[in-house]
């Protein structure tokens, strides 16, 4: 806290990607100075470079700890980890040093949030190959946060205005994902989804649970996971007083949710949730090759701290050019503020 305004940490992401740029662009929005105090956890040189090639008028204030942030419009507070010098990274290219820096930003922000020095953490995009080159064994942010917070029961939620999806499994091969559709895990994800909806201000969340197989198994004609694993988890949640329906065929459940019938959908694997989310949130102008809209937020459920993120990658093709879209970053900051206020 800084007075009566909460400090929201923003990790810069991979220096070779668009993370620094979208952070700068997002913080040019004056509304964030009214709602929170933002603190970028990253490298000063990368933020100053982004300010330069985006022609931003923001001024950098370097701090050593969150308590030193300045509460002034036009100021961008940076907790400089001093991992990089100009020339240590090349925009659009994977590398061990950028990967190491990106992981360091994340780990530092987690520590600050666990110490209650940050009300929430918003993460910029990282590159899986770069962090793996740096020795990080994880597939992405979700696993890094889980390990560094000691969290065992967690899930990924993707959110846009008209749709929210929560995953039973994420970054695993499809064959492994099918094996992970077990009653206890499905029940855990339903409860995590219910609790998250409450934090987002929904008093009586309505949750749909997608089937794994075509037609949700069609009474075991196309698979038995629905009757043996998914339905029992739903029955358990209903017995606990939650409003949960399913298993619903995957080819209709998202249309129902977008239409307002449900507040969130529990999905069984990565692409089952990511495809509808990105179809709704990403709008491409095929004539220019530019994304007119890149909306959507990634939220890790179950953590002892609040973590939201952009729902896109490092966009190496755009990095360093000043053309990146900051829409998803702005939405991630907004949801972090909302969740930290409830």
Cα-atom radius of gyration: 20 Å
Instruction: Give the spatial strand order of the biggest sheet.
Output: 3-4-2-1-5-14-13-6-7-10-8-9
What structural category arises from helix and sheet content?
alpha/beta
- Uncertain regions: pLDDT < 50 for 5+ in a row? none
The helix/strand order is EHHEHEEHEHHEEHHEHEHEHEEEEH
Percent strand equals: 15-25%
Largest sheet: 12 strands, mixed
Global morphology: globular
The tally of helices reads 12
Q: Give the % helix.
A: 25-40%
Q: Under the CATH scheme, which class of the largest domain?
A: Alpha Beta
Average pLDDT reading:
92
So, CATH architecture of the largest domain?
Answer: 3-Layer(aba) Sandwich
Q: How many domains, in number, for the residues?
A: 2
Count all strands and give the number. Answer: 14
User: Termini separation (Å)?
Assistant: 15 Å
- The CATH topology of the largest domain is Isopropylmalate Dehydrogenase
CATH superfamily of the largest domain: Isopropylmalate Dehydrogenase
Notes on the protein architecture:
The structure is a single chain. The protein has two domains: 7-150 and 303-341, Isopropylmalate Dehydrogenase (3-Layer(aba) Sandwich), CATH 3.40.718.10; 155-277, Isopropylmalate Dehydrogenase, CATH 3.40.718. Helix content is 38%, strand content 20%. The chain has helices spanning 19-26, 31-35, 44-53, 96-114, 128-133, 141-149, 174-179, 183-199, 225-239, 250-258, 270-281, 327-341; strands spanning 7-11, 37-42, 59-63, 75-80, 120-123, 155-160, 163-167, 206-210, 243-248, 264-267, 282-285, 290-294, 297-301, 307-310. The protein is globular.
């Amino acid at each position: 806290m800084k007075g009566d305004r909460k400090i929201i940490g923003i990790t810069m992401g991979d220096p070779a990607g668009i993370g620094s740029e979208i952070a700068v662009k997002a913080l040019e929005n004056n509304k964030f100075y009214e709602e929170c105090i933002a603190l970028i956890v990253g490298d000063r040189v990368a933020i100053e470079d982004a300010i330069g090639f985006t022609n931003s008028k923001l001024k950098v204030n370097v701090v050593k700890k969150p308590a030193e942030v300045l509460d002034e419009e036009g100021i961008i507070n940076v907790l400089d980890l001093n991992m990089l010098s100009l020339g240590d990274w090349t925009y659009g290219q994977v590398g061990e040093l950028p990967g190491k820096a990106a992981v360091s930003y994340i780990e530092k922000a987690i520590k600050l949030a666990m110490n209650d020095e940050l009300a929430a953490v918003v993460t910029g995009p990282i590159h899986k190959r770069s962090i793996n080159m740096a020795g990080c064994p994880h597939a992405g942010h979700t696993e890094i946060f889980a390990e560094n917070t000691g969290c065992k029961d967690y899930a990924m939620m993707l959110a846009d205005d008209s749709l929210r999806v929560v995953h039973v499994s994420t970054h695993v091969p499809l064959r492994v994902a099918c094996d992970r559709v077990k009653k206890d895990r499905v029940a855990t994800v339903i409860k995590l989804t219910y609790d998250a909806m409450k934090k987002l201000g929904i008093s009586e969340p309505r949750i749909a649970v997608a089937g794994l197989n075509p037609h949700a198994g069609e009474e075991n004609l196309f698979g038995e996971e629905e009757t043996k694993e998914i339905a029992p988890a739903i029955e358990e949640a209903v017995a606990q007083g939650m409003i949960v329906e399913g298993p619903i065929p995957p080819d209709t459940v998202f249309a129902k949710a977008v239409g307002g019938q449900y507040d969130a959908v529990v999905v069984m694997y990565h692409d089952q949730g990511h495809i509808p989310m990105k179809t709704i949130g990403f709008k491409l102008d095929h004539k220019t090759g530019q994304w007119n809209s890149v909306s959507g937020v990634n939220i890790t459920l179950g953590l002892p701290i609040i973590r939201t993120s952009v729902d896109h990658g490092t966009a190496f093709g755009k990095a360093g050019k000043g053309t990146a879209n900051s829409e998803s970053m702005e939405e991630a900051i907004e949801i972090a503020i909302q969740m930290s206020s409830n």
